[in-house]
Amino acid sequence: MDWNLINLDADSATPLYLQLCSSLTEAIKTGKLEPGDQLPSERKLAGLLAISRTTAVNAYEELEARGLVRSYVGRGTFISARPDRLGAQFAWRGKVSPLIQRHLGPDIRALLASNKPQMISFSAGQPAYEYFPVERFLAVTESRLRSQPRDTLGFLPAEGHPYLRECIATREGVRHEEVMIVAGTQQALDLIARCLIYPQDRVVMDWPGYLGAIQSFQFSGAVLSGWDMTLADLDELEDSLIKHRPKLLYLNPSFQNPTACTLSLETRQGIIDLARKYRTPIVEDEAYRDLYFATEPPPSLFELEGSGLVLYIRSLSKTFAPGLRLGYIVADEAIIDQLALVKAQGDLFTPGLSQLALADLLTNGVYDNYLKLLRLKHQERARVMEASLQEAFPEGLSWQKSQGGLYIWAQLHHLESGELLAEATKAGVSFMPGSSFFFEPGGKRALRLCYSGTEPEAIRSGVERLKRAYNQALGMSGFSL
Amino acid sequence: MDWNLINLDADSATPLYLQLCSSLTEAIKTGKLEPGDQLPSERKLAGLLAISRTTAVNAYEELEARGLVRSYVGRGTFISARPDRLGAQFAWRGKVSPLIQRHLGPDIRALLASNKPQMISFSAGQPAYEYFPVERFLAVTESRLRSQPRDTLGFLPAEGHPYLRECIATREGVRHEEVMIVAGTQQALDLIARCLIYPQDRVVMDWPGYLGAIQSFQFSGAVLSGWDMTLADLDELEDSLIKHRPKLLYLNPSFQNPTACTLSLETRQGIIDLARKYRTPIVEDEAYRDLYFATEPPPSLFELEGSGLVLYIRSLSKTFAPGLRLGYIVADEAIIDQLALVKAQGDLFTPGLSQLALADLLTNGVYDNYLKLLRLKHQERARVMEASLQEAFPEGLSWQKSQGGLYIWAQLHHLESGELLAEATKAGVSFMPGSSFFFEPGGKRALRLCYSGTEPEAIRSGVERLKRAYNQALGMSGFSL
Known about the structure:
The structure is a homodimer of 481-residue chains. By secondary structure, chain A is of the alpha/beta class. Chain A has three domains: 3-98, Winged helix-like DNA-binding domain superfamily/Winged helix DNA-binding domain (Arc Repressor Mutant, subunit A, Orthogonal Bundle); 107-126 and 372-477, Aspartate Aminotransferase, domain 1 (Alpha-Beta Complex), CATH 3.90.1150; 131-367, Aspartate Aminotransferase, domain 2. Chain A is 44% helix and 12% strand. A seven-stranded mixed sheet of chain A has the order 4-10-9-8-7-5-6, with helices on both faces. A four-stranded antiparallel sheet of chain A has the order 11-12-15-14. Chain A has a two-stranded antiparallel sheet with strand order 1-2. The first copy, chain A, starts with 15 loop residues before the first helix and ends with a helix. Chains A and B meet through helix 4, helix 5, helix 6, helix 7 and helix 9 of A and helix 4, helix 5, helix 6, helix 7 and helix 9 of B.
């Protein structure tokens, strides 16, 4: 904010403090002042603008009454809202925490809202849930609800139903005390961030990396540093651990979101050696590891090292169904204990009926058969998308062949993905622009395309729509080959 | 912490910094230093104890290596963990945010875990869900899952399924944009606190008040001030609004948790006048208002004033079933918009299947019939508990007759409720001690008994167990009449 640009006219009929007020409102509206920005003290502002201190005080009071700034005793005055963004009724203006406006972007909400019949969505990461075992799920649901009202309709422990914890502990080869049930990976990340991050803590994470993880860590006050796992340079990681002394390291080692990369066994072992050497705990998000096509990824960091150094997040949204909101965390028992305090305070517990239904399908083999089917269907869909992209974009777009997971990470040669997205939305197809996965500017030419949630015929139509949007955007950008 | 109590022996074979380290570890273990407490700077400590600055630096470094303190550049050194409370493996020690240890007590988790077959629980607030319409619920669940895989298994908007939002908007007489679906009241409180509270904001709330609300506000950094709604003194409320200029006012006006009080229409109107006068938004938690026995409570603050001043939380845990984790918020559209950002970041969205099943039962009258039945059953249970208490405690315990809601708030005359609880747990009956609902010391002789979740015969047995525990505790306390 350049304070020299504020022109005040002492001869005007409008009082100086109201002129100042209008100038500052305009600066907030146009984004020159952002929510969370601190304003100069009244004394300093008076000096900067050669006005009386009373004029400055009156201007700030008026802005506060309009809900645009908020003063905190001993801390100063901060921009609290952007008038056009938050058209709340009077009493609510300026009441929203500046942390929201600083850290929570609209991307996740937009992604959730993209699941509409008329839109072909390559944006949300969804499995081929048309193959979900509906009848088997209904059968166990009915049986559990009829026979166990207390466990399905009553309160449950924050850390999850004991039976599901035990099922998962058996599958993972750990004790049930090391398992906690959550309402999906996003909740796992949110609980972990709230439990472990104190403002100004450093987190080293995938760069690009999962949008939800970026926001969870930042919303809890973390300062992020990136490690590019497509390069997988262990020296760079060591430099970062030395330089930043991070509170924790967040990694998504198999079919990473968004790049679809998988870390080799050697790299995984190297990461563990570094984490040991610098006593840095790892949060390992293995949402996609079960969704390989031909070859299973190398063992997880958790399998290699255990809960002493690794906290392990597993999604069931990607392998079961996103709409059921289920996932789990495996970690040191003392950390599970603390996470359960945050979970209890956040939403008490995860619904019992879906926990027990999942436990039954894990036990009777239905889940595993469904997972096998998903692998086949996803591979088929990946190949259809790759072939369609190849045909539609003989040049102008490049990507790696998918080996598993849900995504193709592609690079545009002549356009930015934001320009393409604007046209794609009009054409009825959506994807995630690359920049959403970068916490510093980056990824402007990248896009993440989810193939798994769309049937082959619709994938072909979606790619055609994308091609039309591409031609449109290219025409508008004035690019010619 | 009295630093004069630290004795260091310069002649000992143990280096001074290790002696200091042991003394500080002991102080942390015994609670003289609490997680979150700031330690003096190394320079200041050296002065206090007449040691060299190097000794102080070495001691702090050793404590940090042991995971007991954590230093932040520019802010100083803080106690980060209590060694006996957090027996984590090495890499995790001292990693938990001090906010957890400062603000999240074990009471909610203990309450959730009290739902066990062998225990008669008067602690958790549960409706008579034995009467839950299981067959009707299964029928709509089956039908929705079979016919709408996208809406039940796929992603949904963070603010809730449009159909359920519309149903609720119609019932509440608002627009669907003003409605947001959440996973229960506790999540509503957590989202509101994260969305609106900035550290050091003041909140004026019921005192005693709902434990989950206390923790949610404090965990987001709020400073709480209490208003005793059993006295309902509007002058006291006005003084508090003038003195504290709170960010918001949190109230639970009907069959309040824990006191079971209901505010009169005059008091409600007086509160609204004050909120208008001091431009203080109200968060109104009406979890219990539909659960009256004979007479409906006065209109809610929301009905009286609307979303311009009131954010309205409705629980479905208390009127439907706690295990399904459903509730909703009605608020100014701009605030719903911000809350949805926090919800998306917290757990993406609430499961679609339970949202749609609820919508169907709201529409076809099953929910309302069930609610009518709950009112009758709860009244019957309240009367059974009151009669049993009357018989078991002809003196020594007093309470008000219940008019609705789920609780009896009782006062012990000769014992503290903590003493009674210790014996009650052994005898196989649980309740919530009054002190859990006070954010400053208070309520030591009070207890909250939930009657609604227990069948009449078990209520009688539970009160008998309580009486045995009472006699036991009274004997131990040495009290004689």
